[in-house]
Amino acid sequence: MTHNNGYDVVVVGGGTAGLSAALVLGRSRRRVLVVDAGEPRNAPAAHMQGYLSRDGMPPAEFLAEGRRELARYGVRVVRGAVTEVLPDGRGEFGARLSDGRAVHARRVVVATGLVDEAPAVPGVAERWGRDVLHCPYCHGWEVRDRPFGVLAPEPFTSHQALLVTQWSKDVTLFLHTVREVPDVEWERLAAAGVSVVEGEVAGLEVTDDRLTGVRLADGRVFPRSVLFVAARPVPRDGLLTALGAGTRETPFGPYPAVDETGRTTVPGVWAVGNATGPAEQVINAASAGYRAGVTINAELVMADIDARAARRRAGVFTPEAEAAVAQVVAGGREHGLVG
């Protein structure tokens, strides 16, 4: 392993979860490489909400500040993708980057997030994160008291339509392709004051770059200034799948199986943030990255101590020789020669 391509940890993904893990590891004097494809889930949003002390901050600005913090600790951040992660047979990993470079990592953190697949309704994808929204906790306050529309999902649930009544009392549920609604759902919608419109949605009405209405296939237009849509969240889990990582079933499909620290079923590999589930908001992702970073550093500390203990038992590394090496390493760190 050379100084140029050998790292304690390679973090795949430079969003909140990945940067948070890298920050903890950098502060723990670890050599860390973050490979960032620049595709955060919240990129379409102008602001992020609900993060104490950073409420309303633009997501790009938040991530830029995170990268500036990492630089203080010598963490290297590069733009690109990791195309392959392969076990090296000794409990560590080789990773190949999209530019062809190969690096070595003792541990890997996968923070590749997910992709929100919006329904194929004309105009929805173009206005995603602006006035076509999926999370009232992320955007509800900013659009409060406006006329809301909600596009019914399949399989049908009234949950989103009922939930957003906390932010506006003018809510219309568009059944779109839903043909049957259980009686209990009709009762709840009526109790919440939600209007229900039958008929397939054909597109959106936009005036001066603002959503003004929802247009049905029969030509009817319903004035609305906000449309909530339940997108299908799809994890970017290709690297984990190739490694044979286990999954768990969720209401949104299979996601990587992880413990409370983000450890996957593949020894030495962690997954954090939206790579592990769609409900991870920015503040949750930061927490998950932190936990993973702490756990990984502790694991590496103990692994190194156990390895030294084994060498001493075997008489390969005497206490005197170990002290001499430690002195050389300390001197190299002081002069920036050792990471």
From TrEMBL:
<dbReference type="InterPro" id="IPR023753">
    <property type="entry name" value="FAD/NAD-binding_dom"/>
</dbReference>
<dbReference type="InterPro" id="IPR050097">
    <property type="entry name" value="Ferredoxin-NADP_redctase_2"/>
</dbReference>
<dbReference type="InterPro" id="IPR036188">
    <property type="entry name" value="FAD/NAD-bd_sf"/>
</dbReference>
<feature type="domain" description="FAD/NAD(P)-binding">
    <location>
        <begin position="7"/>
        <end position="289"/>
    </location>
</feature>
<dbReference type="Pfam" id="PF07992">
    <property type="entry name" value="Pyr_redox_2"/>
</dbReference>
<keyword id="KW-0285">Flavoprotein</keyword>
<keyword id="KW-0560">Oxidoreductase</keyword>
<protein>
    <submittedName>
        <fullName>NAD(P)/FAD-dependent oxidoreductase</fullName>
    </submittedName>
</protein>
